[in-house]
Amino acid sequence: MSDPTDSAVLTDGGITSEDEVQQDYERHEGTKSGTRSMVLNMGPQHPSTHGVLRLLLELDGETILKAAPDIGYLHTGIEKEFEVKTYQQGVTLTDRIDYLAPLSNNLVYCLAAEKLLDLEIPPLAQWTRVMLAEFTRLNSHLVWLGTHAIDIGAMSVFLYCFREREEILRVFEMFSGQRMMTSYFRIGGLALPHPRGWQKRVKDFVEIFASRVDEYEELLTNNRIWTGRTKGIGYIPLEDMIDLGVTGPMLRAAGLKIDIRKDAPYSSYEKFDFEVPTRTENDVFARYMVRIDEMRQSLRIIKQALEGMPSGSHQADAPGIVLPDREKMKTQMESLIFHFKIVTEGFRVPEGEVYQAIESPRGEVGCYMVSDGTQKPYRVHWRGPSFGNLQAIPKMIEGTLIADVIAGLGSMDFVLGDTDR
Amino acid sequence: MIPEDLRTNPLAAAFDDLATTAKFAFDELTVEIAPAHIVAALSRAKHDLKFERLSTVTCVDRYPAEPRFEIVYHLQAIAAGQRLRLKARIPGEDPAIESVFSVYRSANWYEREVFDLFGIRFLNHPDLTRIMMPDDWVGHPLRKDVPVTGTRY
């Protein structure tokens, strides 16, 4: 049994003499107070890391000297799972990657497969995809605003945002039967035709939402505590952001007018009239304002989709790929055979590779699909926007305070499902 | 050497001396670069051809064909709105390729992910450690010879 007064046991190799004090000081030269820096583990379980992100912070007092993000806690091998499922089955996997924007994920996957199959999607399906993708953007931004605000201390905003989100989830439920993991966009169009009465629900939402966004602004934009915590915080130079792989609202808040919906329109976005909001201050407050304005623009798109929704089929004309109408399947032999083959075997996709990118609420989400001519993809790589955005974390928070880390992480709006897949 | 039919494509022609082949399909240009020239090719893309953004670095395992691994780089030129795919094929036996971190800093985590899940070593990478799997994991899960149910239990 060792002597409890033995200094080697108690202090575990700590400082026990004047020489060691001097050596220790020299080792940590650079810290202001001449004492050791502390490594703080902002662990994977933390309400403000918005998911299971682990940040190792080397601190001098409250100032961050070095930061190292550690990810992988939500890695579930989704990319490998794509390889053992047919293309249509893979749609259900995509919901779960970025779980706050499931329809965006569905959309990019379906667009990639449709590019390989060279399918023409009917206008009704395209306009519905646009409308629901914008609802998804609202959904994601509302969660972002609620959690970002509550991290900084504004608790009522969280409840206000989730009140609106309830309405959006009800719209999703009406269309697809699911609040979150909708899998509503399928290769070839939509899973189901439009539900009866959807116009009324969307119209009711559209009528109240504009004033609700004004309410959030009323609580935050001119609030001295909010502006004090967010203005001037979280600056990353624009060239560094581009070089480090950041995309999305963070670039727009730094002045770069980049938005895939405008630059390379997909799914008939070119027919919609909307703006891409930008700011120049490149801080947490600017990113907040950009996303608030994006919510208003999304509302504008939804209004246009509601008023101008075309009529027609919700699926492409491709009998071997899209499932036949249910009634036909029960009465006609050919439809039954098609249904059986599509569901059990899946359809073959021509050999080739595509990279399809769309503008998700977080930035550029990309699906790199490699096909070998069989019914299952050979390789699907998911380019999650949060993976690129997180690389910029050390650049953003080194040299700032812990409180600014919380504000900065919130402004980045990452989701670990997207990052780790 | 890029194929005859693509010599008129200025983007493909810019890589003529470094490329082994190229193809244009589904509206996308893919240029295959010899692995030894990958840093030079990406450098040319970034500085001369103005492809400022590296979207992603990934890998496709073509087991059992040789060369086994295809390292795929997706680039984007923001102002021109163009995208480009560069590929390098490396053999399955002790796969290694030069890291492109010196050209694009965003390659950092993407190359770590490829190392972690496929086992490709990136030479001169600042911090080549596992990123998704736990640090003490043995094996490279996304390779084709690893079953989807895993090797652990």
Strand runs of chain B, count: 7
Shape of chain A: globular
β-sheet strand percentage of chain B: 25-35%
- Compute the average pLDDT of chain B: 89
What is the 3D form of chain B?
globular
| End-to-end CA span of chain B | 47 Å
Low-confidence stretches of chain B: none
Name the chain pair whose interface involves the most residues: A-B, 38 and 36 residues
DSSP strand count of chain A: 8
Q: What fraction, in percent, of the residue positions of chain A are helical?
A: 40-55%
Tally of DSSP helical segments of chain B = 3
- Tally of helical runs of chain A: 19
Straight-line distance between termini of chain A: 49 Å
**Structural class assignment of chain B:** alpha/beta
Radius of gyration of chain A: 25 Å
Can you summarize the main beta sheet of chain A?
Answer: 3 strands, antiparallel
What CATH calls the topology of the largest domain in chain A is Cytochrome-c3 Hydrogenase, chain B
Q: Which class best fits the helix and strand makeup of chain A?
A: mainly alpha
CATH homologous superfamily caption of the largest domain in chain A: Cytochrome-c3 Hydrogenase, chain B
The CATH architecture of the largest domain in chain A comes to Orthogonal Bundle
Estimated share of beta-strand residues of chain A: 5-15%
